[in-house]
Amino acid sequence: MEDAVADHDLKMKKLLRRCQERNVKLNKQKVAFKQTEVPYIGHLLTSEGVKADMFKVEAVLRMKRPTNVIGVHQIMRTVGYLPIKVPSEITRGLTAFQTAHQERNSPTLSIMSERKT
Is 40 inside any structural domain? Predict the structure, then answer.
């Protein structure tokens, strides 16, 4: 472990030196070293793997209950984006709702069903 830390520190020093040589400015407020967790586009990258960012999960929990297909799409996209396990009975119900709506409102499907009869 000590070798890995020393190797990391050496590479970071080289990177910072190259930034300085090329006049690349780093924002001290946005740079953090030796973090055990790093938030990244709705995920939390940790030494134990990828986890859901609780701020994002709480935002999903605060979302209004969908009352139409657009609302269902929003929920599905948001939840699908997070690295959390959604119980299959929930996703199955939402998917069935979406499918039923698409079948009722799809001109292609209605034309195809007319052809069969």
Answer: no
Q: What is the pTM of this model?
A: 0.44
CA Rg value for the chain: 24
Task: Decide if 79 is inside a domain.
Answer: yes
CA-closest candidate to residue 82, choices 51, 115, 39: 51
Task: Quote the tokens at residue 26.
Answer: 């780093």
Distance separating alpha carbons of residues 57 and 85, to the nearest angstrom? 11
Segment 61-88, tens digit of pLDDT: 788 888 887 887 787 777 776 655 655 6
Distances (CA, A) of 37 to 13, 21, 32, 46, 80: 21, 29, 11, 5, 22
How many structural domains are present in the chain?
A: 1
Domain that holds residue 108: 52-116
